Amino acid sequence: MKDRKCPKCGSSDLKAPRHIRARGVTSAKTADLNIITCRKCMYTEFYELTEGEVAPIDKKAGMIFLFAAVLPTLIGIGVSVWLIWG
Ligand SMILES: [Zn+2]
Predict the structure, then answer these.
(1) Which domain holds residue 73?
(2) What pTM does this model have?
(3) Is 62 found in the same domain as 27?
(4) Number of structural domains, the chain?
(5) Distance 27 CA to ligand 1 centre (A)
(6) Are 2 and 41 within one domain?
(7) Distance 22 CA to ligand 1 centre (A)
(8) Judgement on whether residues 42 and 68 belong to the same structural domain of the protein
(9) What is the 3 state secondary structure string of 4-50?
(10) 9 has a pLDDT exceeding 80
(11) Which is more confidently placed, 63 or 3?
């Protein structure tokens, strides 16, 4: 399917690969996958991403964590200090 052809129906009309991160039920390990779906018969294949492909995604996830968790905390502390001392 990576050669842009559906192995089931032979169609080359495939959706663009979409990245998904799957987590096991009992394991803390995650799997980064690309899923490619055929538009004609909806056949879907999974491809695990290589380490090189995962690295920039992990970097991005780290940035999202920084903005979603660390920054509001710092702002919260900053506002408290400002209220007390200001
Ligand atoms: Zn197909």
Answers:
(1) 51-86
(2) 0.61
(3) no
(4) 2
(5) 33
(6) yes
(7) 24
(8) no
(9) CCCCCCCCCCECCCEEEEEECCCCCCEEEEEEEEECCCCCEEEEECC
(10) yes
(11) 63
Same domain, 40 and 63: no
DSSP at 2: T
- CA–centroid distance, residue 77 to ligand 1 (Å): 55
For residues 4 and 45, state if they share a domain.
Answer: yes
What is the reported pLDDT for 36? 94
35-83: pLDDT as tens digits: 999 999 999 999 998 888 888 888 888 889 888 999 999 999 999 999 9
d(CA 59, CA 7) in angstroms, rounded, equals 34
Same structural domain, 42 and 77? no
The Cβ-side half-sphere exposure at 68, using a 13 Å CA radius, reads 6
For residue 74, report the distance from its CA to the centre of ligand 1, in Å: 50
Residue 27 shares a structural domain with residue 37: yes
